[in-house]
Design goal:
Largest sheet: none
CATH class: Mainly Alpha
Number of domains: 1
CATH superfamily: MetI-like
CATH topology: MetI-like fold
Number of strands: 0
Shape: elongated
Number of helices: 8
Order of helices and strands: HHHHHHHH
Strand content: under 5%
Helix content: over 70%
Length: 204
């Protein structure tokens, strides 16, 4: 009974960390990608920074965050967010820019405003790429959330590391199996959501 309660509590902590980070990443990445449409310099800076952070190993990102922010939930969220931003920014930017110029010319020709063009043409065109980026970021956040247990984020990673340190295979599996199941559920749920919300969805 105690083991079940421990797993449920750790799983809940893990889910809260992953989805809070994902939401924060979306709220930062999508406006940045949108703003980059109007500034090539901003686009260059944003993409360069995101690529740089993505190239740094996850453990190194976590280690860099600790001296500045300490340990706990918020530092873990920042560390995960730094790694999760790139797929959303890059895919959203590609989706927003990869529009047939003829559609934009037609929209301008019939008198649509800039906001209407973004809302009815660019964003619907970007949905498939955006969903792909968000789904990948969610899976990435789920895996890095395990590592952030090292800096006190709690969750399933704490159980996994306790199992590793104590050479306790049973405890290791108690943390690893739910983390794997969560990754599969994240992939499935975002695929279903993409299929429901994206017109003309084609499974990759």
């Amino acid at each position: 009974m105690a083991a079940t309660e421990m797993i449920l509590n750790a799983t809940w902590e893990h889910i809260v960390l992953v989805y809070t980070t994902l939401l924060a990443s979306i709220l930062v990445a999508v406006p940045l990608a949108f703003a980059s449409l109007y500034s090539q310099r901003l686009a260059s800076v944003v993409m360069s920074f995101a690529n740089l952070v993505q190239a740094v190993p996850s453990f190194a990102v976590i280690a860099i965050v600790v001296p500045f922010l300490g340990i706990g939930f918020v530092p873990a969220l920042i560390a995960i967010m730094l790694r999760a931003l790139l797929p959303i920014i890059r895919n959203t930017y590609i989706g927003l820019t990869n529009v047939d110029p003829a559609q934009i010319d037609y929209a301008n020709g019939i008198g649509l405003s800039e906001w209407q063009i973004q809302r009815y043409i660019r964003f619907p065109n970007a949905y498939p790429a955006m969903f792909a980026g968000i789904k990948f970021s969610a899976i990435l956040a789920n895996s890095i959330a395990v590592l952030t247990a090292f800096i006190g984020s709690g969750g399933l990673g704490e159980i996994i590391f306790q199992g590793l340190i104590g050479y306790n295979t049973e405890k290791l599996l108690l943390g690893a199996i739910p983390a794997i199941v969560l990754a599969l559920l994240i992939d499935l749920s975002f695929t279903l959501l993409e299929k429901k919300l994206t017109p003309g969805y084609i499974k990759q």
